[in-house]
């Protein structure tokens, strides 16, 4: 006797409901010490942030967990405010340096918050014995990146710690930008049917840093994608004024960005593996290392959720900008399965895409 279809549907429905309820639970945090996984941008990072920092500093702006906080002044003007720290090793890598990252990372956090970046601060923690020539080179990279992004470093701080207590140099930056009238980006604006757009090829930065460390017997022509994204964001907002939400896909890559969005909205994200822009060299390196490109960090790529009727115009506009030639629609927002990210494979199957687990990648920013 064949199974009752109604029973099958009911059982599958109950199973799906249990999965959704499980994924909506607050992330567990049972660690007694901090590990490297807590800085990888995946599940461990999310649990640490939720149980330690959000719990301590809870307020409406912080709980949005965006790349920057959008703050309204008494005058009615809105500012975006963001901060970041940079601890990458090595300090210099193909395509950039920690100096480039320090500027681009904060500029991009402001840009995907909908703001026009204006001012930065920069704080340096220097290890005793750090070569001054290397410091000058890094600062020159920061000056170049700031000039190209149209921002000014207006304040800062310098500390020196004893030899052996830091990896040469750490940089912290904060930034302020002005949010133009009419620009509003938030997870609660996302709707089923919206499209997922990425602004460029995935995974280049994480792979470039990993290979630059020199402890892998892999040779590949891969350079970091580090760049300021404010001009791409501006072009997107002109072409797709109903853009719902944006995030730059840094630690944890596209997978983490989409999982965070799914968790915030309760909606599902379905990506199409065949549409993901990944350079052949990056894909080859990922395959050799057993790493999914959607988990690899980017420093010059953002993810945007746009209205379906504006998706084509958004991609056309991005492809006309510097670094945007590989922009593509790579997925859509769906009602079910809610709170989850799935990937359609080229073979017609579907797999779940979870947040990064553990610490398989190097310190990339």
Brief synopsis:
The protein has 365 residues and is of the alpha+beta class.
Which descriptors apply to this entry?
14 strands, five-stranded mixed sheet, alpha+beta, Phosphoribosyl-aminoimidazole Synthetase, Chain A, domain 2, 365 residues, 10 helices, seven-stranded mixed sheet, 33% helix, globular, 60s Ribosomal Protein L30, Chain: A, disordered N terminus
State the CATH architecture of the largest domain.
Answer: Alpha-Beta Complex
Question: How many structural domains are formed by the residues?
Answer: 2
Oligomer type: single chain
Largest sheet: 7 strands, mixed
* Helix and strand sequence: HHHEEEEHEHEEEHHEHEHEHEEE
CATH superfamily of the largest domain: PurM-like C-terminal domain
- What is the mean predicted local confidence, pLDDT? 89
CATH topology of the largest domain: Phosphoribosyl-aminoimidazole Synthetase, Chain A, domain 2
**Poorly predicted runs:** 1-12
Number of helical segments with 4 or more residues? 10
Measure the end-to-end span: 59 Å
Radius of gyration using CA atoms only: 21 Å
How much of the sequence lies in strands comes to: 15-25%
The residue fraction in helices comes out at: 25-40%
> Would you count the extended β strands for me?
14
Q: State the name of the first-level CATH class of the largest domain.
A: Alpha Beta
Q: Going across the major beta sheet, what is the strand order?
A: 9-11-8-12-10-13-14
User: What global shape is seen?
Assistant: globular
Q: Structural class, judged by helices and strands?
A: alpha+beta
């Amino acid at each position: 006797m064949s199974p009752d279809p109604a029973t099958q549907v009911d059982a599958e429905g109950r199973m799906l409901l249990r999965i959704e309820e499980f994924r909506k639970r607050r992330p567990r945090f049972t660690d007694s010490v901090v590990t490297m996984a807590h800085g990888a941008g995946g599940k461990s990072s999310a649990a640490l942030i939720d149980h330690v920092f959000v719990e301590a500093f809870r307020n409406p702006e912080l709980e949005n967990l965006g790349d920057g906080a959008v703050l309204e002044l008494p005058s009615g003007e809105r500012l975006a405010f963001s901060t970041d720290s940079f601890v990458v090793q090595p300090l210099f890598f193909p395509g950039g340096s920690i100096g480039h990252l320090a500027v681009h990372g904060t500029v991009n956090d402001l840009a995907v918050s909908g703001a026009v970046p204006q001012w930065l601060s920069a704080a340096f923690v220097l290890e005793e014995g750090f070569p001054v020539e290397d410091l000058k080179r890094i600062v020159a990279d920061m000056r170049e990146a700031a000039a190209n992004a149209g921002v000014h470093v207006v304040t800062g701080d310098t500390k020196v710690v004893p030899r052996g207590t830091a990896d040469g140099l750490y940089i912290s930056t904060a930034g302020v930008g002005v949010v133009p009238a009419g620009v509003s980006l938030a997870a609660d604006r996302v709707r089923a049917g919206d499209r997922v757009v990425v602004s460029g090829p995935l995974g280049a930065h994480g792979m470039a840093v990993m290979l630059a460390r020199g402890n892998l017997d892999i040779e590949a022509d891969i350079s970091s994608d580090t760049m300021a994204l404010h001009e791409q964001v501006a072009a997107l907002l002109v072409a797709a004024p109903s853009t719902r939400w944006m995030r730059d896909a840094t630690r944890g890559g596209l997978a983490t960005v989409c999982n965070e969005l799914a968790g915030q909205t309760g909606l599902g994200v379905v990506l199409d593996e065949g549409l993901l822009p990944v350079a052949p060299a990056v894909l080859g390196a990922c395959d050799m290392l057993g790493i999914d490109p959607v988990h690899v960090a980017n420093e010059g790529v953002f993810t945007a959720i746009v209205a379906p009727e504006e998706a084509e115009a958004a991609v056309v506009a991005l492809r006309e900008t510097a670094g945007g030639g590989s922009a593509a629609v790579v997925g859509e927002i769906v009602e079910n399965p809610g709170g989850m990210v799935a990937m359609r494979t080229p073979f017609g199957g579907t797999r779940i895409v979870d947040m990064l687990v553990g610490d398989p990648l190097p310190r990339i920013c």
